[in-house]
Automatic annotation (TrEMBL):
Protein origin, superkingdom: Bacteria
Catalysed transformations (reactions): a hydroperoxide + [thioredoxin]-dithiol = an alcohol + [thioredoxin]-disulfide + H2O
Name the UniProt record assigns to this protein: thioredoxin-dependent peroxiredoxin
Subunit comment: Monomer.
Length: 156
């Protein structure tokens, strides 16, 4: 499945990564229990990534009311994620994918020298319901995800 592209309707691949606290986060623990908003972003503390993460933070209550958890993933270390989360009061999980294995499982393509920026909505059964790709406007990921959820009347 590596380097294949995850499309709407596909089952989310199973993976386990370290979160910003150094704890294992296994996606299988959430399938059947929660919807998931998974966003891949290139780098902690870069301008667009910070805007995107802060937009997810500021909209977190909406996602929570929709029964979803928010998960950000990139190749940064758990320590980098922890500092990023603390610096910007992020209220969601950040996962460290140091070799970009999960990024490749999802089929996310690089843009020039940066890893891709894509957001996925996963329903409670683990199926991909929505996918959005856009590199230069971090806020659009949150706006498009909320628009999708509203179009589904919060029933993903």
């Amino acid at each position: 499945m590596e380097n294949s592209k995850i499309e709407v309707g596909d089952q989310v691949p199973h993976f386990t990564l370290k979160d910003q606290n150094g704890e294992n986060f296994a996606i299988r623990d959430y399938i059947g229990k929660k919807k998931m908003i998974i966003f891949f972003y290139p780098k902690d503390e870069s301008a667009v990534c910070t805007k995107e993460a802060c937009a997810f933070r500021d909209s977190y209550q909406y996602f929570e009311e929709a029964g979803a958890i928010v998960i950000g993933i990139n190749s940064g270390s758990a320590e980098s994620h922890k500092a990023f989360a603390q610096h910007h009061n992020l209220n969601f999980t950040l996962l460290s994918d140091p070799e970009n294995k999960v990024l490749k499982l999802f089929g996310i393509k690089n843009f020039l020298f940066l890893t891709g920026r894509e957001t996925f909505v996963i329903d409670e059964s683990g199926k991909v319901k929505f996918r959005y790709r856009g590199l230069l406007n971090g806020n659009a990921h949150v706006e498009e995800t909320i628009e999708y959820l509203q179009s589904q009347k919060v029933r993903v």
